[in-house]
Structures are given as structure tokens and as C-alpha cells.
Write a structure and sequence with these properties.
Helix content: over 70%
Subcellular location: Endomembrane system
Radius of gyration: 26 Å
Distance between the termini: 91 Å
Membrane topology: Multi-pass membrane protein
Number of domains: 2
Oligomer: single chain
Structural class: mainly alpha
Number of strands: 0
Shape: elongated
InterPro entries: Ccc1_fam, Ferritin-like_SF, Ferritin_CCC1_N, Rr_diiron-bd_dom
Order of helices and strands: HHHHHHHHHHH
Keywords: Membrane, Transmembrane, Transmembrane helix
Pfam families: Rubrerythrin (PF02915), VIT1 (PF01988)
Largest sheet: none
């Protein structure tokens, strides 16, 4: 039987697809072994098998051995551990859509591409259906802790920076205020969830408290690093940290929950920085009118 001759365009697409399938197979297999939920575990295992079959099909056409992108595999494994499988699957999902359109370009020359395209679309649907990660059920609690910490601590630290002009004293004040506020916020969240008869009130309050405490640590850190008299540098670094925290968190939520990124980012950043600016002015006025000089 005469072997099929492929155009260079089709060969290039199939070789890339073959490598992508090999790569995704390893990623899905890792997720399947790590996942505890039986439904999610089964779907991920099936997806890994599908990707493996696709890779074999492309290999039968390209007649070439292709190695997976191990750097990408390790990167996605790391992201899965740190960010959760929902975030990673959403990133891969965008690739599934691209792959489907890519196969459509060679469907006349390679009829097998039709089945592969249908499988990719089914993968996308299954990905959407299976996304039920525990940590995303508590996004509201994390947002509450993060928002409150950013607004309250950014304003407090900004005001204290000018009033005290000493990084160590500001850091001490921030740590005491932050820990107290963390406990208060976690307790308030617990009582509020209990009032709503939420059986997972304790877990919700833990997510709120952890998000708050991590934010406190990141905001106070510049004041522990900079020399005592470099309060302005610590303040600027703290504000930059605020922007990065908001940027990172909103990107995570926008990817994992399909929410608009820019609007949420600008809203949260605008509120936090506005409160910081107002608090900074208040710190100046308090120091001036009370005549306090430390």
C-alpha cells in the first residue's frame, strides 16, 4: 500500500500536534494520579488515554518519533500543585480550542483530523463540566480576606509611614495590627457563616484568615528589609507589592472562573491605592497638628 504523502504544512502541523498530545498526555496523567475526586480522576485518565491515542495516530502519519515538551510538563505540574488543577486546566483549555481550529485547516488532506477535532471539543466540554475544585468554592472567603487586608493594612501602613518615619516602628505596628485584624476577620467570617447555617463555616474562616495573614506578611516585609530611615522606599515598595498581589489574584480568578480581568483589577487597585493616599494625607495632618515628632 502506497504511503500517504503529506504537504509540508500538514507535516509541520501534525508534528507539532504530536508533540502537544504527548505533552498533554503526561500532564493529564499526572493530574489523574494526584486527583482524589473519583469523577475528576476518571475523566482525566480518559483524557490522558485520548491524547496518547492521538499522538499514536499522528505518529502513524508522520513516521517520526517526537518527544514531549518536558519543560512544559514540569511547569504545569508545578502550577497544579501551587495553583490547583482548575487553573491549569483552564490554561490547557485555551490550547484545546486552538488545536481544534488547527486541525480544521488540514481536514481535507488528513480526514483523521475530524475525529481528533471532535475529541478536542469533547475535552473542552469535559474540562468545563469537571471543574469543581474545593479551593474555588471558597473564593468569596479569600476575596474577603484579601480585600480587607489590602484596604485596611495599605491605609494603616501608609498613614503610619509619614507619621512615624521609621521602618521598624511601622513594621511593628503593622504586624500587631495585622495579626489582630486577621483573628478578628476570621472570627467574624466564622460567625457570619454559622448564622447562614454553612456546615463549612470553619473552613471558610480559615481561608479568609490565611488570605489576610499572607497579605499582611507581604505588606510588612519591605519595612523589615529597608533601613530604619528609608521609610519612603519601603512605602513605595509596599505599594508596588499591593499592585502585584492584586494583579496575581485577579489573574488567577479570571482564568479559573472565567471572569473579566481588567475591570476587577482596576477596581480593586483603585480602591486600595485611594485608601492609601487618603491615609497618607491623614498621617501628614495628624503629625502636623498634634506636633508629634518621633
Amino acid at each position: 500500500m502506497k504511503e500517504r504523502e503529506l504537504s509540508q504544512k500538514a507535516l509541520d502541523i501534525l508534528l507539532k500536534s504530536q508533540r502537544d498530545e504527548e505533552t498533554d498526555c503526561l500532564i493529564y496523567d499526572f493530574m489523574s494520579k494526584k486527583e482524589k475526586d473519583p469523577k475528576n480522576k476518571k475523566i482525566l485518565a480518559k483524557m490522558a488515554a485520548d491524547e496518547r491515542d492521538h499522538a499514536k495516530m499522528w505518529k502513524s502519519l508522520t513516521k517520526k518519533e517526537v518527544n514531549p515538551n518536558l519543560k512544559l510538563v514540569y511547569w504545569y505540574k508545578f502550577l497544579t500543585i501551587i495553583m490547583g488543577f482548575t487553573f491549569v486546566l483552564k490554561l490547557i483549555q485555551s490550547g484545546e480550542t486552538t488545536a481544534s481550529s488547527k486541525y480544521a485547516d488540514i481536514i481535507d488532506e488528513v480526514p483523521e483530523a475530524k475525529k481528533a477535532s471532535e475529541d478536542e471539543l469533547r475535552h473542552e466540554y469535559e474540562l468545563i463540566e469537571m471543574l469543581d475544585e474545593e479551593r474555588l468554592q471558597y473564593v468569596g472567603a479569600m476575596v474577603l480576606g484579601l480585600n480587607d487586608a489590602l484596604v485596611e493594612l495599605t491605609g494603616t501602613i501608609a498613614g503610619l509611614s509619614f507619621a512615624l518615619m521609621n521602618t521598624r516602628i511601622v513594621a511593628l505596628s503593622g504586624i500587631i495590627t495585622g495579626i489582630s485584624a486577621t483573628l478578628s476577620m476570621a472570627a467574624s467570617n466564622y460567625l457570619a457563616e454559622r448564622a447562614e447555617n454553612n456546615p463549612n463555616a470553619m473552613k471558610s474562616s480559615v481561608y479568609t484568615g490565611v488570605a489576610y495573614l499572607i497579605t499582611v506578611a507581604l505588606l510588612v516585609l519591605p519595612y523589615l528589609i529597608f533601613p530604619e530611615d528609608m521609610w519612603l522606599g519601603a512605602l513605595v515598595t509596599m505599594l508596588i507589592t499591593v499592585i502585584f498581589i492584586i494583579l496575581f489574584f485577579n489573574y488567577y480568578i479570571s482564568v479559573a472562573k472565567d471572569l473579566p480581568f481588567m475591570k476587577r483589577f482596576l477596581e480593586m487597585a483603585g480602591i486600595s491605592l485611594s485608601v492609601a493616599a487618603i491615609s497618607f494625607v491623614i498621617g501628614i495632618l495628624v503629625k502636623k497638628f498634634l506636633g508629634i515628632d518621633l
